[in-house]
From TrEMBL:
Organism: Polypedilum vanderplanki
InterPro entries (alphabetical): DNA/RNA_pol_sf, RT_dom
GO BP, sorted A to Z: DNA biosynthetic process
UniProt protein name: Reverse transcriptase domain-containing protein
Domain named Reverse transcriptase: residues: 1-141
Length: 347
């Protein structure tokens, strides 16, 4: 390890000429297999900071989630003080570890109708841009959590895939087009799809129409072919889930991971004491925001799957396979009109 990190030098190539060699005192070689592990070790204690915000790390990306309350005007300074305190802790941490906070790439998203001129002024003076929406790990999040921009993004990728399939159908076979479909269309439908539980049924229908168009090209059937027949006769035998099926699969799988989590890294869910059902207890939805909470909606779906899937003895790989089979078997029910509602969902 010492020989790998110490006494390293580098030189710069510019216009065909090399600079003199210079010694490197920090960092790891780019592309090294040890690089990600060593970076994680370096910032592992970041979560120990006593911040008012919840810190969420992924590689070198960091999200701070600070709950804001609607205060009387004279108390609005409290939110500013909490945020200033947290940013101060982060800056001190970065300084001690030879890191730097890039304010130019830092953005703030204020969710909901919260309005605090003092907070906006503080963010502006700190060089942090306040946005209507942000993109994090390829997922678009807007301040109203309607996810319309994420729907637009998925639809854009699906349209690109459909255009490619139209060019492919005269020059390749069905198997090759199915491989392309899973790589360039189904993958976009599956990525973080549990969050789409918040979306309106009209937005989900928009994605379903695009998925139908792609499948009709692959299976070479008329554009007027009925959606349910398309899935029952063609898609389900190829183990292709509908858009709603993908969302429900992802949401139920999320709840399974939370239920099985024992290290405290995921939100906690109250488990039912009834061994007959092995259900999870739902949080009482007292607000509009909580009624559309993804975890709460996922729990409602989880409670409707077969008991054998909810038993602790069912490992995650078996759970995935059995859950997908269960959803495929119920495709007909999922594609019924107005089915995209967790509270109307019954099997």
């Amino acid at each position: 390890m010492e020989s790998f990190l110490f006494n390293r030098t580098q030189k710069v190539l510019f216009n065909g000429a090399y600079s003199e060699s210079g010694e490197i005192f920090r960092g790891v070689p780019q592309g090294a297999k040890l690089g990600p592990l060593m970076f994680n070790l370096m910032v592992n204690d970041l979560s120990n900071l006593e911040t008012n915000s919840q810190l969420i790390k992924y590689a070198d990306d960091l999200i701070m989630i600070l709950p804001l309350k609607i205060h009387p005007e004279k108390e609005m300074q409290n939110d500013v003080n909490q945020l200033r305190h947290d940013l101060g802790l982060l800056n001190n941490y970065y300084a001690k570890n030879d890191l730097k906070l890039n304010c130019a790439k830092s953005k703030a998203l204020i969710v909901g109708k919260y309005n605090n001129s003092l907070l906006l002024e503080f963010l502006h003076s700190s060089g942090i841009e306040v946005c209507e929406e942000i993109k994090y790990l390829g997922f678009n999040i807007d301040k109203d959590l309607k996810l319309l921009s994420q729907i637009d993004s998925i639809a854009h990728h699906l349209n690109q895939g459909i255009a490619a399939l139209r060019h492919m159908r005269d020059n390749t076979n069905m198997q090759s087009m199915l491989l392309f479909y899973h790589a360039h269309i189904q993958s976009h439908l599956m990525y973080s799809s549990f969050a789409l539980l918040r979306c309106r049924s009209i937005d989900i229908s928009r994605l379903q129409i695009l998925q139908n168009a792609a499948l009709k090209i692959i299976f070479d059937i008329p554009r007027s072919y009925h959606t349910i027949d398309l899935f029952i006769k063609y898609a389900v035998p190829k183990r292709i889930m509908s858009v709603i099926g993908c969302i429900y699969y992802s949401a139920i799988l999320m709840v399974k991971r939370i239920v099985d989590c024992t290290d405290g890294s995921l939100p906690t869910i109250n488990k039912s004491h009834s061994t007959r059902t092995s259900n999870v207890n739902l949080t009482s939805a007292k607000s509009k925001l909580l009624k559309h909470d993804v975890v709460n909606s996922g729990c409602a779906l989880y409670n409707q799957i077969p008991l054998k899937l909810k038993l602790p003895s069912c490992n995650i790989n078996d759970f995935r396979a059995e859950l997908k089979l269960f959803i495929l078997q119920n495709t007909n029910s999922l594609l019924k009109p107005n089915q995209f509602s967790v509270r109307n969902f019954t099997l």
